[in-house]
Specification:
Helix 1 packs antiparallel against helix 2 and helix 5 packs antiparallel against helix 6 (about 115-130). This protein is mostly helical. About 70% of the residues lie in helices and about 0% in strands. The radius of gyration is 20 Å and the shape is elongated. The mean pLDDT is about 95.
């Protein structure tokens, strides 16, 4: 038994602050919301439809509507990481709630610890929104303990470069070259740091 959806009406169109789009696009997105409402009335467990509702609400700058849809996804699917990542981005960039952003980013990682992009996103959040390079570096290092991914190596090399730690920046750029010997711009970055 799962509770019924109690958020903003699925087919309610609310234009948030700063929203602007051609009428033809608004008409199509409104039709899409009505189609999704009909589909979800038949099958409330359709993951992709709930994600799509949130995407359309976000398109309209209806961030609370997007939040409601994606929060309901995690009621239905508490182990799926995508809605958590979407919510992390929504809370960080639009709803300006850093504690909820961090929580959701961490839940995405918890639910899929082998997805490199989740670590990069959380590290970027720490660097950009909390000005905490130490937490950003720790996040990438924790990802590298689980997976050796080129994007994690690029991310941590960039973090070290940005704080002026040339030794570690070069070290991690060299790890990138071990995976991809001709990765664009990496050898040039190493040469510049030397």
């Amino acid at each position: 038994e799962v509770p019924p959806y109690s958020g903003k009406s699925i087919n309610e169109v609310v234009f948030g602050v700063g929203f602007s789009a051609p009428q033809s696009v608004i008409t199509q997105k409104t039709k899409d919301l009505n189609t999704l409402l009909a589909a979800l009335e038949k099958d409330q467990f359709n993951f992709n439809d709930w994600i799509a509702v949130g995407v359309i609400k976000k398109f309209f700058n209806d961030f609370e509507g997007a939040r409601d849809a994606w929060e309901y996804v995690i009621v239905l699917y508490p182990k799926d990481p995508l809605a958590f990542e979407n919510l992390g981005n929504l809370y960080a960039f639009y709803l300006r709630d850093n504690s909820k952003a961090e929580y959701n980013y961490k839940k995405a990682i918890e639910n899929n610890p082998l997805e490199a992009s989740f670590y990069v996103t959380l590290a970027d959040f720490y660097k950009t929104f909390l000005s905490d390079n130490s937490k950003a570096i720790d996040t990438i290092l924790s990802g590298l303990e689980k997976i050796k991914d080129i994007n994690l190596f690029l991310s941590i090399a960039g973090l070290y470069r940005d704080i002026g730690d040339k030794t570690n920046a070069i070290k991690y750029y060299q790890e990138v070259l071990k995976i991809s010997s001709n990765h664009p711009g990496v050898q040039e970055e190493i040469d510049r740091l030397k």
